[in-house]
Structure formats: C-alpha cells, structure tokens
Write a structure and sequence with these properties.
- This protein has helices at about 15, 20-35, 60-70, 70-75; strands spanning about 1-10, 35-40, 50-55, 75-85.
- It is an alpha+beta fold.
- It has a 4-stranded antiparallel beta sheet with strand order 2-3-1-4.
Length: about 90
C-alpha cells in the first residue's frame, strides 16, 4: 500500500531548514534505498508544504520516517499527517 506523508512548513522554511537539510536528505536517501520511500519533495511558490510518498504494509513506514526526521525534531515542520493513497493509474 502507498502512504503520503504531508508536511506543513513554518514561515521562512527554506532558510530555517538549511542546518538540518543534509541530515534530512540522508534519512530520505536511506528510505529510498531500502524501498520504503518512492519519492518526495517540497511544493513551490509558496514553499509551505511538502509530500513524501511511501510504500509499505501499513502507515508506520511513513510515521516512523516523520518521527525521526530532523525537520520535525527541529520544528521546521509545524504540522504533519499520514494518509493512505489509493493509486488508480500508474504505479506497480
């Protein structure tokens, strides 16, 4: 099953994430390499949200990522939620 991790970012997100970006990207790369993260990125103009798409047996795959994400730990993310995503077109 697929799960979307939705982030609402703080004001000045792009600047405030800078000290934690390498650690965040490393965590994302690990998830990509182990096959749980499919893709992720921030929305632009404005940069007020981000989404990461995960694949796993249950929502814990996305929830565990969020709980270990330096962006969340360092309050660069003000809200987050995980939603199951039912793919209708594309995918595997």
């Amino acid at each position: 099953m697929y799960y979307i991790l939705l982030y609402k970012t703080v004001d000045n997100y792009v600047e405030r994430r800078a000290p934690f970006r390498n650690e965040h990207l490393s965590l994302a790369q690990q998830a990509l390499e182990n096959g749980t993260l499919i893709m992720g990125g921030a929305l632009a103009d404005p940069s007020d949200e981000a989404m990461l798409i995960f694949k796993g047996e249950d929502s814990s795959v996305a929830e565990n990522f969020a709980k270990n994400d330096p962006y969340l730990k360092n309050e660069v993310i003000k809200e987050w939620q995980v939603r199951q995503w039912i793919v209708v077109v594309g995918g595997e």
